[in-house]
Structures are given as structure tokens and as C-alpha cells.
């Protein structure tokens, strides 16, 4: 039987098997939610990069550029890390370079996987349906916050485990823990996450609407996948 595993933070990635595995990267607040939204609104490709300097290089080549650090937009870049920024005609057909505090770093660390997918609650069903037809094991890589575990990405991992539990065996305790956490909180995720560290961080910035939006399930039938150095969208 295929297995699903969960890596709770990129700092633990060296303890997991990436080769011969499909990796689903989750940075719910807000990088992967932004990416899914961008593809739903017609972006052509997204190049995830680890550093601001790399992002600026792509900007100088004519790409739209999104740079976020500590949950705020970096000066000198057109786009930020709010999904509402990507609900704009300017991104239709555009190629975007993006760097974020946690999410894009997690993607770049996963390049040796069979496939790297971008997951969020917004495309949870699309990701689950795609994986049902795949023959490889799956690992959910939670982006966390600066190397630490966070609740929202762990809850997404648990939600995906829940959708796949009839066809994938839970490989390790991290998958079981994530699943049980999600089962506890799924009926009211905003309330369940109310005291979490990143919720408090975002609320201090006055962006409650981003939190509410990113916790919605199954809005979009898009599956961003890494092809070379760029994410592109697969329809499922």
C-alpha cells in the first residue's frame, strides 16, 4: 500500500525520504495559498526562489516579482504575500518570481522529489484527487515558521491525510498526529487556530481577511507542480 508521511518543518527534512516520493509543500499563511490563487486567476508560471537577491534578478529580467519577509512585502517589489493581490488582471498570463520567509524555501529544498506540488486548503480536493491516481508515496512538507512547527500547515497535512487515508497508509507518527489534530479542529478551523502564533502575527498586521480566506476548503481545481525551476498549473 502507498504511504503518506508528514515532515513538520523543513529543519527535519533530512530525516525523511524525498527520492521516489511526491512532495506536497504547504505554507497556508500565505505563500502556497497565494500561488494557488494566482494560478486560479490566470498566472502563467511562478518561479519560487529562496532569496531576495534571486527574486530581484528575475525582476530585472522582466518578471513580476513578489517578495515577503516576516509577513510583510519587501520594498521595491510589485507583489506581496496576500492572496488578494493575485486577484488582478495584471497577473493574467504573467510570469512571476516569488520569495517568501518559509514557503519558497521549502519548495527549493524539495527539488529531488519525483514531483513537487503546492498545496493549500484552497485546492485540497484537487491535490487529493490527483494523488489518488499516482503510484508513488507522498510526503507533506510543512513550511512552518523559520524552522519551527506551526499549526496551520500541520492541519493542512492532517486534512490531506484524512482525504487519502483509505488509499495511503500513515507512514509515521507525524502523519497520525497531523490527522488527529485536523479531526479535532476541522469543524471550526478559525476558532481552533485562534491562539496560534502566526494568526497572532497576521492579526497584528490587520489582515484578518487573509486568514479567513486561506482556511476555505476546495475553492480551486488547480494543482501547481514544479517543472524545472518554475511552477505551472495542472488542471484536474
From TrEMBL:
It catalyses: (2R)-O-phospho-3-sulfolactate + H2O = (2R)-3-sulfolactate + phosphate. It is an enzyme of class 3 (hydrolase). Its EC number is 3.1.3.71. Keywords: Hydrolase, Magnesium. One of its GO terms (molecular function) is sulfopyruvate decarboxylase activity. It comes from the Bacteria. Belongs to the ComB family. This is Probable 2-phosphosulfolactate phosphatase. It comes from Spirosoma linguale (strain ATCC 33905 / DSM 74 / LMG 10896 / Claus 1). The lineage of its organism: Bacteria, Pseudomonadati, Bacteroidota, Cytophagia, Cytophagales. The gene is comB.
Amino acid at each position: 500500500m502507498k504511504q503518506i508521511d508528514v515532515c513538520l518543518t523543513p529543519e527535519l527534512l533530512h530525516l525523511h525520504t524525498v527520492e521516489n516520493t511526491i512532495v506536497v509543500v504547504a505554507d497556508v499563511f500565505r505563500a502556497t495559498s497565494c500561488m494557488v490563487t494566482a494560478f486560479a486567476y490566470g498566472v502563467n508560471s511562478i518561479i519560487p526562489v529562496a532569496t531576495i537577491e534571486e527574486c530581484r534578478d528575475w525582476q530585472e529580467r522582466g518578471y513580476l516579482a513578489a517578495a515577503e519577509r516576516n509577513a510583510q512585502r519587501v520594498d521595491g517589489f510589485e507583489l506581496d504575500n496576500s492572496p488578494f493581490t493575485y486577484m488582478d488582471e495584471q497577473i493574467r498570463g504573467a510570469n512571476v518570481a516569488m520569495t517568501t520567509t518559509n514557503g519558497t524555501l521549502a519548495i527549493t529544498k524539495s527539488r529531488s522529489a519525483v514531483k513537487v506540488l503546492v498545496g493549500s486548503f484552497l485546492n485540497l480536493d484537487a491535490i487529493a484527487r490527483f494523488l489518488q491516481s499516482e503510484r508513488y508515496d507522498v510526503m507533506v512538507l510543512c513550511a512552518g515558521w523559520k524552522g519551527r512547527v506551526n499549526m496551520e500547515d500541520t492541519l493542512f497535512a492532517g486534512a490531506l491525510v484524512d482525504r487519502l487515508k483509505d488509499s495511503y497508509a500513515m507512514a509515521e507518527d507525524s502523519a497520525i498526529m497531523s490527522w488527529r489534530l485536523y479531526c479535532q479542529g476541522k469543524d471550526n478551523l478559525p476558532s481552533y487556530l485562534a491562539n496560534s502564533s502566526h494568526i497572532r502575527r497576521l492579526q497584528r498586521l490587520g489582515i484578518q481577511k487573509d486568514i479567513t480566506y486561506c482556511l476555505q476548503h476546495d475553492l480551486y481545481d488547480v494543482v501547481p507542480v514544479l517543472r524545472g525551476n518554475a511552477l505551472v498549473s495542472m488542471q484536474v
